[in-house]
Sequence to fold (189 residues):
Amino acid sequence: MQHRHFLIHKPHGFLSQFIYEKKRPKKLLGDLYDFPEGTMAIGRLDEDSEGLLLLTTDGMMSEIVRSKTVEKEYYAQVDGIITTEAIEQLKNGVEIGFKGIRYITKRCEAKMINELPYCIAEGRRIREERHGPTSWLSVTLTEGKFRQVRKMTAAVGFPTLRLVRVRVGTIHLNHLNAGEVMEVKEFQI
Fold:
């Protein structure tokens, strides 16, 4: 069987899945493109997050990408102007809750971002400027706990307002606009 692979810029408000059986209707990945049967998302982005999502019909590829050796980079817009002290805390690991237990995140890369790439642009409006300043930072992880980046930035006093995954391994979001899907021959992780 010839497997198929896709890159997608998941928009805000969509679930990273194809089936949702609860009562309230939700926007699903299948609403964006006619994917072949058996397509699965590799990893997830929560409904409030956006950005790069890899999809494939190859379950083994999913295992490779989700491994703890592949970096995932996120741009987070946070409440307030993030401090160098907070960035250092993020780099060294912070305590978050995961499945009812306290967990110390692994060391990661984190830095302030002054200019956003075109594919992120202004995006959806988060809130009125009168409610205070915001800033952007890059966080690069090799682990992926439930809502981890959001929990990490909150733990250092700067809650995430907007979260965009921009890179998985060597694959970048590049110029995919929200909702765009691109089929690729293979994933060059």
Notes: The two ends are 21 Å apart (CA to CA). DSSP finds three helices and eleven strands in the chain. The first strand starts at residue 5 and ends at 10.
